[in-house]
Amino acid sequence: MNATNLFSNTKTGTQSHHGSQDEKYGDSPRTATQDIVDELPHGYQQASTKVDPDEGFDPDFLKKTIRKIDWRLVPFLAACYSISLIDRTNISLARAAGMNAALKLNVGDRYSIAVLSFFIPYILLEFPSNIGLRKFGAAIWLSTAVTLWGLMMIAMAYVKDHHQLAALRALVGVFEAALFPGAAYLISCWYIRRQVQKRLSFFYVLSVFATGMSSILAYGLGRIYTINRSLQPWQYIFVIEGGLTVFLGLIGYVVIVDFPDKAKFLTEDQKKMTLVRIQRDRADAEHDPVTWSKVKTYIMDIKLWAFALMFMGTTTASYALSYFLPRILAGMGFSTANSQILVAPPYVWALIPAIASGIMSDKTQIRSIWIVLNCFCAIMGLALFAFLPAANTAGRYAGIFLCAGGCNSNVPLVIGWAQISIRAQSKRAYTSALTIAFGGIGGIASALVFREQDAPTYRLGIWFTIGFHIYIILACAALSFHFRKRNAQADRHGEILEGHQDFRYQL
C-alpha cells in the first residue's frame, strides 16, 4: 500500500510534503511511515498528549483502519463474554428446570453455596490471568480458557449431588477469570480514550441480550425432553450450552487478535498509526511489564478502589437479576415456563440505555453523569418492585425493566471510566482485574443478601442494592470533584498526573 496514504493536510486538503501518492513503502528516503517511527520507539514517554490523536492522518485510511479493528476485535470477544455470562448464570434456569429437586438444592444454603463457589477462584485469579494474557498471547490464553470452562459446563450435566455441582462451578470460575478482565484490558489497549467507552458498551450489551435470550433458549432446551428423555431438561441446558462454548473456544484460536504491537491482521502502516494515536492520546502505547513494585504503587491509588466498589455495587444488582429473576417472577404468580420467557424482555430493553449511555459518554467525554442517571433508574426500578402492592404485577414488572436497564448500563460505564482515568499498560491490567474482581464480590453479595428465606420479595437484598446505588452516586460526585481539582492543579502549577505532564482526567 502507499505509506503516504496515512497522512493528509487537514487544513488545506493538499498532499503531505513527505512524498507523493505514488511513492511506495521503502522507495523514498523519507516516507510517512518513517515519520510515524520517529514517534515510536524513543518517543514514548515524551510524546505530547496535547496533540490530537488523529492529526495528520488521512481520514479515509483512519476510518478504514478503525473499522477493521472494530470488526476483528469486539464482536468475537463479545460473543465469548456472552457465553461466559450465560454459563455462569444458567444455574438459575437449570434450577427452575428440575435441578432443584434432582440435587435437593432447596435444602439449607445449598443453592447459594453452589452460586458462591464460582466467585472465589474467579476473584482471586483475575490479576494473575491478565499477566498470563500478555505473556502467552490473547488467542492462546483466552481460547484455552473458553474451551476448558465449556468442558466443565458439559460435566455439570452429570453431577450426582450438590457437592459435585459446587466443585465444577469453582472450576468454571477458574477459567472464566481470564475472560472479562482480559477482554476489557485488551479493548482498552486498542483505542484512544474518546473511543473506548462505546466499544466497551457494545462489547457488554451483546452479553446482556444473550442473557435475556438464554432464558428462552433454556425453555426450548427443556422442551427437547418431550422428544428425547435420555437426559433431564436441566441436563440438556448444561450439555448444549457447554457444547456451544467449546465450539466458540476452538474458533477463538484463529479469530482472537493480540495487542496492537503484536497484531498480525493489520498492515505495518496501520499498526504504527494505531500505536501513535494511543501514544498521542495517553502516552502508554509501549508495553511495560507488571512488577511487584508497580503493583504496590497501584494498590495505594485510592481512585482504583473507588471504581472497584462502584463496580461491586452495580454488579450486585445485575447478578441478582441473573440468578434470582426466574424465582422472583415465579413468586409474582407466573408459571415456570412463563417465568423463563419473561426473563428476556427486561434484558432486551437494557440494550437501549446501555448503547445510548456508551455513545453519549464518548461524545461528551463526560463519564460520571451517565452513571448517575442510570443509578437513579435502577433505584426507581427497585423501589417499584419492592413497594408496589403484590397485586400490581404490571407495575412491579416495569420496575424490573428499569433496574435491568440501569444496572446493566453501568457495568461497561464504570469499567470504561476506570480505564480512561489511568496510564501505563501494567496499571491497565491491574485496574481491569481489580475492578472486575470486585464485580465478582458483587456476585457473592447478591447470593448472600438475596436469601432463600426472603423469597419472593427479597426485601433485604432490595434495600442492600439501593444502598449500593446511592454509594455509586456519591462516589461519582466525589471522583468528579477530585478529578476537577487535580486537573486545575496540573493546569496552574504543572502538577504531573498519572506520570505524564499532559494527562488530564475526564469527569
Could you explain the architecture of this structure?
The structure is a single chain. This protein is mainly alpha-helical. The chain has 18 helices and no strands. It has one domain: Up-down Bundle (Growth Hormone, Chain: A). Helix 2 runs antiparallel to helix 7, helix 2 (59-102) runs parallel beside helix 8 and helix 15 (368-387) runs antiparallel to helix 16 (393-420). The radius of gyration is 24 Å and the shape is globular. The chain starts with 31 loop residues before the first helix and ends in a 14-residue tail after the last helix.
Number of strand elements: 0
Helix and strand pattern:
HHHHHHHHHHHHHHHHHH
Q: Which word captures the global form? A: globular
Radius of gyration: 24 Å
Number of domains: 1
Main beta sheet strand tally, sense and closure: none
Please report the first level of CATH classification, the CATH class. Answer: Mainly Alpha
**What's the CATH H-level superfamily name?**
MFS general substrate transporter like domains
Counting H and I runs of at least 4 residues, what is the number of helices? 18
CATH architecture: Up-down Bundle
How much helix is in the residues? over 70%
Q: Which features characterize this protein?
A:
507 residues, Growth Hormone, Chain: A, 73% helix, 0% strand
In short:
The chain is an all-alpha fold. It has 18 helices and no strands.
Write the layout of secondary structure elements.
Blueprint: H1 32-39, H2 59-102, H3 110-124, H4 126-136, H5 138-156, H6 162-176, H7 179-190, H8 193-224, H9 233-255, H10 268-282, H11 292-299, H12 302-331, H13 336-342, H14 344-364, H15 368-387, H16 393-420, H17 425-449, H18 459-493
Helix pairs in contact: 1-10, 2-7, 2-8, 2-9, 2-12, 3-6, 3-17, 4-5, 4-17, 5-6, 5-9, 7-8, 7-17, 8-9, 8-13, 8-14, 8-16, 12-13, 12-16, 12-17, 12-18, 14-16, 15-16, 15-18
